[in-house]
Amino acid sequence: MDIIGDRVNITDYKTGKWEVAQKHVHSNLQLGIYALALHNIFPEKEIYAELYYLRSGKRKGHLFTEEDIDEVKNKLINTIQKIMVDQNFTPTANSRVCSYCDHAKSGACPTGVYRNKNNSYRK
């Protein structure tokens, strides 16, 4: 984060191969949350957030408007409300994710433990 005059610049450095298309950067929830937080801290400043892809060197950014910030707020509230009432906790199909999950390691998720055991047998 850099404050330059009347603007706050946020840069999220990305190391992966997958890149968000420029036309979707304004709706990227992670950047939106950063913009929302900094808008609350610095309400008088413009908020510019960008994704900086280290592999390609591409920078994809967006200047967040008041409407964008309100949209992020609403999206976040709706997502939280859905999570609070959701009773269907379907395990991920991405077995790599399980190796980082505390629930899989603790035994709280039988699917994750099973995947971790299977992965360790393959090594």
Topology readout:
Elements: E1 2-4, E2 7-14, H1 29-41, E3 46-53, E4 59-64, H2 66-85, H3 95-98, H4 102-106, H5 110-122
Parallel strand pairs: 2-3
Antiparallel strand pairs: 1-2, 3-4
**Overall number of strands:** 4
Based on helices, strands and strand pairing, what is the structural class?
alpha+beta
What's the alpha carbon Rg, rounded to whole Å? 19 Å
Label the overall shape.
Answer: globular
User: Largest beta sheet, briefly?
Assistant: 4 strands, mixed
User: In DSSP terms, counting alpha (H) and pi (I) runs of 4 or more, how many helices?
Assistant: 5
Order of helices and strands: EEHEEHHHH
Distance between the termini: 41 Å
Integer tally of domains = 2
Strand arrangement, major sheet: 1-2-3-4
Mean pLDDT: 86
Query: How would you classify the quaternary structure?
Result: single chain
Strand content: 15-25%
Q: Low-confidence spans: pLDDT under 50, at least 5 residues?
A: none
- Binned, the helix content reads 40-55%
